[in-house]
Design a protein that fits this description.
The protein contains 13 helices and no strands. With 187 residues, the protein is mostly helical. The longest helix is centred in the middle third of the chain and has 13 residues.
Length: 187
Amino acid sequence: MIWLVSAALAGLPMPYEEAVQRLGSPLTWCDGADSLGVLGDPKALPPLMEAYRKPVEASKLCLLDAMQMLQAETQSHTLYDGGERLLGLHFMTLFPSDAHLPLVVSSLNAAEESERVAAIQALGSQKQTPLWIVSMLPLLDHPDRAVRSEVIDRLMFRREVEVREALRSHVDAEPDPSLKVRLSLVH
């Protein structure tokens, strides 16, 4: 106990286990998040995301800051490739990057519905760069209506001629009547 008090006064981070415990309450999660960020261990990303996803009305900026300190943008690929696909997709949603696009697009075809839903959310949160546009256009032919709906919603108000032409030319190919109506509104 004396060590913890003197460590806190010296500005040292608390031990990993204690920092993770502090993520359990919005009253203490910033203390825990700050220490986890300083400790620099990417294994803290899952408990940080767990705290972030709690349906609590409290500031979560400190959690995002700690995730960023732990390089969540690049670590999302490690999590995804290591079997934590949903967790990786959640980080890809919070920390967008063109580097995520191949994994996100791949997950749109996953067998698990929860992974497909997370991929749709991640796709919608990415920066709308030229590579993003190139990745989106082929998805107009995706078999999942939810994917096509997201793509149409995201591309509908783009001003690039090639995007507008792609949307207009897809009206006849779109099997869903409500999506066909939305596509017909593109001028």
